[in-house]
Amino acid sequence: MKLVGKVRSVPDDQAVLGAQALMQALNSAPVVDGRRQDLWRDDHEVDRWAREHGGLGGDEERRWLRTARDALQAVESGTPAEPRLRQVLAGVRKVPRPSAAGIEWQVEAPPERRLAVELVLAWADVKERMPGRLRPCENPECCLFLLDRSRANTARWCSMKTCGNRLKARRHQARTRDTPRPG
Q: How confident is the model at residue 174 (pLDDT cuts 50, 70, 90)?
């Protein structure tokens, strides 16, 4: 990455944020004791996440990160969010830079939006490299997302330990309750 004037450049062929950072952001609003908890409501939590991923923190960066996260959660849940994604990506440019290896494409974004843009780029990268693998947990009481890395692409829950076992136990109880007993 290079700084170009007051705009931070990010190589286009590699999102600086990866799938792990994307999943942390998407899953920053879990359900705890039946209530959704937005971990990013706390400014210190967003700043901590931002600093861990090369950001500086601060009001503007937090606002853009929350906007990007909320838009990506909406899109992955089947709710339109293109206007918010367009807002995050407004004014971002893809610029060719000559190098010894040929042309390198860099993305230029305002510093306060850099991490939010990288978050959207990480999402786009996952969607392109792993189509159909990023999805919401199938537990209707859960707000988390999963990135299915299984060969068969059949994962259904964010965690087999929690959501998977819970739903399987409920289905089993329903079947045994509905099955007539002999005699």
A: low
| Cβ(16)–Cβ(124) below 8 Å | no
Which one, of 128, 152, 163, 140, lies nearest residue 77 by Cα?
A: 140
- Give this prediction's pTM: 0.80
The pLDDT-based confidence of 154 (bands split at 50, 70, 90) is confident
Please provide the distance, in angstroms rounded to a whole number, between the alpha carbons at the two ends of the chain: 74
Domain ranges of the chain: 2-132
Cα 150–50–89 angle (5° rounding)? 80
Nearest to 116 by CA among 81, 147, 70: 70
What's the distance, CA 69 to chain centroid? 6
Q: Cα torsion at 96, 97, 98, 103 (round to 10°)?
A: -40
| Contact assessment for residue 134 and residue 126, using Cβ atoms and an 8 Å cutoff | yes
Residue 49 has pLDDT above 70, yes or no: yes
Do the Cβ atoms of 21 and 121 come closer than 8 Å?
no
Contact yes or no for 138/40 (Cβ under 8 A):
no
